[in-house]
Design brief:
The complex is a heterodimer of chains A (417) and B (304).
Chain A (H helix, E strand, L loop, with lengths): L1 H22 L1 E7 L5 H15 L3 E7 L5 H11 L5 E4 L3 H8 L17 H4 L12 E14 H7 L7 H14 L3 E3 L7 H11 L1 H4 L2 H9 L7 H11 L14 H9 L3 E7 L3 H7 L4 E4 L11 E12 L6 H11 L2 H10 L4 E2 L10 H12 L1 E3 L14 H14 L4 H13 L7
Parallel strand pairs in A: 1-2, 1-3, 5-6, 8-10
Antiparallel strand pairs in A: 3-8, 4-6, 4-7, 4-8, 4-9
Helix pairs in contact in A: 8-17, 11-17, 11-18, 17-18
Chain B lengths: L8 H27 L2 E4 L2 E4 L3 H8 L1 H36 L7 H9 L6 H11 L6 H8 L16 H13 L1 H12 L3 H9 L4 H29 L3 H7 L12 H10 E2 L2 E2 L2 H25 L10
Antiparallel strand pairs in B: 1-2, 3-4
Helix pairs in contact in B: 1-13, 2-3, 3-7, 3-8, 3-10, 3-12, 5-11, 8-10, 10-13, 12-13
The chains are: A alpha/beta (417), B mainly alpha (304).
């Protein structure tokens, strides 16, 4: 009696399992963007499933801080999803080298992306691309339009105008000129150094030259941004040394600070919090008419688990992610995360539109420390955080910082020329 | 003459503790020590002997961080020894005074922070000391001492001391409770006998009570030592894994975490991380041994 029950139970599970297999290919997506769960479930996945009946997609995010560790253990155990959201550069490259990600260079839709967009998910020689670029974030400055109007300040274009504006806000005294702290360190490097830097080292030109070893971090174009950062200090408000990232966000959205050195990922949060009108301006150039360079940093990609049971379905999904249709849904649902495909996308959020508009006027680059150069010990990205903070606080001169960073890099990095 | 029986109840009663302790303590510990002898080269795990330790102690980049973290650890410990334990003893002495009213209330109030999570303590103090929203600057302002305020947690020269004092605030209840219990166990007859001999007040504390609670102070010192050299949570919760500003609050725990699990673009290196963890283990082991054999065993005990 007992046996029959067990057999029947086994039989029925087997039937259900085969039944499901015959009907659909099911895909699971691994991601750290748990903030975007609703967007994927309500908009992106239904749009895809409508076009591809027979493929069922599930979005299963992990908390951002745990993502890398959880993903690695899932991949090693063979229980990871079919599609894998890719962190930029080395974290994903390591997965590709370990054989966890499939080479996607032959995917037709890859031609929709520029080389800069793909660089984050390529082998060092650019021969294999293993993730489809999904989104980038752009750096610049967000400002309080009301405050600017009240004080009669024009949006600064050159560095001189920028510091004149800061000085004017400081003199007036009703606003903190700029909201940034050095407590968490990364803002100083990400929203400071790598925000204004591309104008000095001429974007990709300098970044690639640094990787090739033709330029050094002691060269003026790499040192000068630190000198400029040092000039920010008097405008950062009292006690900026202990001011954290959320402090800065709150100071700005509460209307107590006039300018916020930003990444475009702030847009949706700021739209919800701030009660005044916001505008954005790009990193100021040295002289009017200079070519401007912006940091349009590739941040999110998506690739395919080499052990996926449904490679065909996964490829279909990836091709769709590379399509303009996906770009339009994604870009509008997440203002501030900009699709990377070459076809321009019409965005509805005014602030996001301003940011993405710079792509037409300026040369694009990515953060200088992300590709290859942060592979060894000491880690150049972490060192840049410390150096940017030291520059602002004035604890080291820009030249000393350049020498120190280059020495750290030289200790393990041998460029191939 | 019968052979001695095997006393089965001994292994049976020992087994659960031995099995659990081996599984969750001894095995991970030995495995960490083992992991420290390997390195990953071209996706392969290779045995490198003591190479990781050579890197840690002699490579300028690693050793600078290691000695910095170790030095900070000693400073952290020193502040606890100089501030937390004396205050704990004084509080216990006051609390054990027979004529103090509401002593149970004070005792609970001082002990409460100890049961709070590090995360809560870290964030609460960060807010209290925040130059923007904190109550510390406005309170100082109210008494006209605003000029004394500095963004302490953001300054290289103050940050570690500030964090050590926060930790003292949190844990001062522990030495207080232990000393309090020791003080209560001193029989009244001893004190009264002293009184007959003319030893009263402060003299009674220095000459009678303090020698009797010395063993407890010894235990507290060693608990503080182990706790401080294993510290991590408070620094991580308030300053993050980079232990800013400029690594001035970096202690062995945060250094190990950053190395083992990686940070931002820095990929984790379990082997170097294990080497640091092994070094921590060795430092604590040596410290505890020195203390147990050098101090504790020579301490005079009194039969009460």
């Amino acid at each position: 009696m007992k046996h029959t029950y067990l057999k029947m139970a086994l039989l029925s599970t087997a039937l259900v399992a085969t039944g499901a297999q015959a009907q659909d290919a099911a895909l699971t997506i691994e991601s750290w963007r748990n903030d975007d769960l609703a967007l994927w479930q309500d908009k992106i996945i239904p749009a895809f499933e409508a076009k591809h009946p027979g493929i069922k997609v599930q979005f299963t995010p992990t908390a951002p801080a745990d993502y890398n560790a959880v993903l690695n253990s899932k991949l090693d155990a063979g229980s990871a999803g079919d599609l894998i959201t890719c962190r930029p550069f080395d974290a994903s490259l390591a997965l590709y080298q370990a054989g966890h990600l499939t080479d996607l260079s032959d995917l037709d839709a890859m031609s929709n992306f520029s080389d800069v967009a793909k660089a984050a998910w390529q082998t060092d020689d650019g021969a294999a691309t293993f993730c489809v670029p999904m989104a980038s974030v752009i750096h610049g400055f967000i400002y309080n339009k009301d405050a600017f109007a009240e004080l009669g300040i024009e949006v600064p274009v050159t560095e001189e105008e920028f510091f004149a504006a800061l000085e004017k806000i400081k003199e007036d005294g009703s606003y903190i000129p700029m909201a940034m702290g050095t407590n968490d360190q990364w803002e100083a490097a990400t929203m400071g150094y790598n925000n204004i830097g591309p104008n000095y080292w001429k974007g990709e030109e300098g970044r690639l030259a640094l990787i090739r070893g033709e330029q050094k971090l002691t060269d003026p174009q790499w040192v000068e941004p630190y000198a400029t950062l040092a000039k920010w200090a008097p405008y950062l408000g009292d006690g900026y040394e202990a001011q954290t990232y959320p402090d800065s966000q709150n100071l700005f959205t509460l209307g107590r600070a006039a300018i916020y050195p930003a990444g475009s990922w702030e847009i949706s949060g700021f739209n919800a919090q701030a009660e005044f009108e916001m505008g954005a301006f790009k990193p100021p150039v040295k002289a009017a008419g200079d070519t401007c360079y912006i940091s349009d940093h590739t941040d999110v990609g998506i690739g395919m688990n080499a052990a996926s049971a449904n490679p065909e379905a996964a490829r279909a999904f990836l091709s769709w992610v590379a399509s303009p249709e996906f770009a339009e849904i994604f870009g509008n649902a997440l203002p501030g995360f900009f699709p990377l495909s070459d076809t321009p996308v019409e965005l509805s959020d005014p602030l996001a539109k301003e940011f993405v508009g710079w792509r037409n006027d300026c040369e694009r680059s990515i953060r200088s420390t992300y590709q290859i150069l942060s592979r060894g010990t000491p880690n150049l990205e972490n060192d840049t955080w410390g150096a940017s903070v030291a520059a602002i606080k004035g604890t080291s001169t820009p030249e000393e910082l350049g020498v120190k960073l280059q020495a750290g890099l030289d200790s393990w990095y041998k460029p191939q020329n | 003459m019968t052979r001695p029986r095997i006393r089965w109840h001994i292994p049976v009663f020992l087994a659960p503790a031995v099995v659990i302790y081996t599984a969750v303590m001894i095995f991970p510990l030995v495995n960490t020590l083992r992991l420290a002898l390997f390195s990953k080269i071209d996706q392969e795990r290779v045995f490198v002997g003591l190479d990781n330790f050579r890197t840690l102690f002699f490579d300028p980049i690693w050793s600078e961080q290691f000695w910095n973290a170790l030095g900070n650890n000693f400073w952290f410990f020193l502040i606890h020894m100089l501030v937390q334990n004396p205050i704990g003893i004084v509080l216990a002495a006051i609390l054990s005074h027979p004529r103090l009213r509401f002593s149970a209330l004070y005792r609970s109030a001082i002990f409460v922070p100890t049961i709070l999570s590090f995360v809560i303590v870290g964030f609460a103090w960060k807010l209290i000391l925040s130059p923007i929203w904190g109550i510390a600057p406005s309170m100082l302002d109210a008494v006209g001492l605003k000029s004394l305020f500095a963004p302490w947690l953001g300054k290289e020269e103050y940050a570690l001391t500030t964090l050590a004092l926060i930790s003292v605030w949190q844990f001062v209840g522990i030495p207080m409770m232990l000393i309090y219990a020791a003080l209560l166990s001193i029989p009244d007859e001893v004190i009264e006998a002293g009184e007959v001999d003319g030893i009263t007040g402060m003299a009674a504390f220095w000459k009678i009570k303090l020698p009797l609670i010395l063993p407890s102070i010894g235990i507290i010192s060693i608990l503080t030592f182990v706790g401080n050299f294993n510290a991590f949570d408070l620094i991580y919760a308030s300053q993050g894994a980079l232990a800013g500003p400029d690594y001035s609050t970096d202690i062995l725990g945060t250094f190990m975490y950053r190395t083992f699990f990686g940070f931002q673009l820095q990929l984790g290196d379990p082997h170097m991380g294990s080497a640091i963890a092994s070094a921590m283990f060795a430092i604590i082991l040596v410290g505890v041994c020195l203390y147990l054999y050098g101090v504790q065993s020579r301490m005079r005990r009194y039969q009460l």
